[in-house]
Amino acid sequence: MRFATFSSSLILAGALATAAHAGDMAELNILGFSQNGGIFAFEEYGVQDGSGFPYANRYYIDTATDSYVKGSPVRVRIDDESATLQAARDKARDEGEAIVKQAELAANRGYTAGQNAVTELSADPSRMAVNPRPVFPAIDKPLEFRLEAIPFGELEQCHGMGEAQGFRLMRIDATDGGRNQLVHDDESIPQSRGCPTGYSIGAIQTFASEGSVSHYAVLIAVQKIGFEGPDHRWMAVTGKY
């Protein structure tokens, strides 16, 4: 009987240890577009594993060039375990006001045509196909993307802990005579991405102006090596419909 009790305690302790040493998964908050769809913005936030410091990052992307606009990204981390996550988010929001007003983004949020959490097990992490708008029968051609991992080997930022992965993203045109389009292809991995070990398509956000879909943003979940386990962060690939 003592043996059974001891064994159960070990199982419970192991489960708690596993939970306590998980990496942190940043929450995704899609902020929206500028009035003409020229800028797309999103936020990621959470509590950093290891340190327990709250952080909030905001990204503002030129949808025509798929590059950061001036002043972006906005990165806030409060190096105080007693600080609240809301305090970090508020600070990032205040700094982002100088790039695009929150009210403008909220008024032009667009439409989340597809979304999968990183905890989703039944979805295909490398493919997402959507009707760009909630119009039935559909009047827009489908919007489909497929993601492919690219091995980069063990980079300096991996510190001997694993091999890094990049990715390429294809826009698929399934119409007769359609041509697929390469919209992103990693030639290198920036230091800011850390040591990424995997990717998945997390969401597709669309924007319509003058009665038709004009812009899109594909949100990519990036799994990378963290302090206590795999971390998840977010990035976006943007373009015109």
Rg (C-alpha, Å): 20 Å
**How many helix segments?**
3
Distance N terminus to C terminus? Answer: 67 Å
Shape: globular
Number of strands: 13
Largest sheet: 5 strands, antiparallel
Residue runs with pLDDT of under 50 for 5 or more positions = 1-20
Mean pLDDT: 90
Question: Secondary-structure element order, as H and E?
Answer: HEEEEEHHEEEEEEEE
- Number of individual domains: 1
Which structural class do the helices and strands define? alpha+beta
Beta-strand percentage? 35-45%
Task: Indicate the percent of residues in helices.
Answer: 10-25%
Pfam family, one: DUF2259
InterPro entries: DUF2259_secreted
Keywords: Signal
Protein name: Putative secreted protein
Per-chain topology:
Layout: H1 2-20, E1 27-33, E2 39-47, E3 54-62, E4 67-68, E5 74-77, H2 85-96, H3 102-107, E6 111-115, E7 127-130, E8 143-153, E9 164-172, E10 181-185, E11 196-209, E12 212-225, E13 230-240
Antiparallel strand pairs: 1-2, 2-3, 3-4, 3-5, 6-11, 7-8, 8-9, 9-10, 11-12, 12-13
Identify the notable features of this structure and list them briefly.
single chain; 241 residues; alpha+beta; 3 helices; 15% helix; disordered N terminus
